[in-house]
Amino acid sequence: MPESPHDRSNAGPQAYRTDGYSMISTRVVLVIADETGTEIDALPTLYETINPEALDQLVESATDRAVSVTFEYYNHRITVTGDGEIDVRPV
How far apart are CA 5 and CA 22, in angstroms? Predict the structure, then answer.
């Protein structure tokens, strides 16, 4: 049986690329909604955790993966790298 996208029984880091959306802050919220099975409108605003505009600017201006930001949002540790990869781990 295929694993459900919300089955975290083998919880480990999950890397996401959501290239269809330009702003990394939007992509983070979409990833957390998918990871937790939570409607986007039910999530706390990202601004309560990190400044979304600053996060977007940092990733936009990054020239390589060496730039990264790690923060906690909705019981998950999120690392965003300069190349747009989003790593999610439950805390």
Answer: 23
SS3 74: coil
Q: What is the pLDDT of residue 8?
A: 41
Q: Regarding beta strands 68-73 and 14-16, do their DSSP bridges make them parallel or antiparallel, or are they unpaired? A: unpaired
Number of Cβ within a 10 Å radius of residue 35? 20
For residue 31, pLDDT beyond 90: yes
Poorest-pLDDT segment among 6-10, 66-70, 71-75, 79-83: 6-10
34, 46, 60, 75, 80 from 65: Cα distances, Å: 24, 22, 12, 24, 9
| Number of other residues whose CB lies within 10 A of the CB of residue 88 | 21
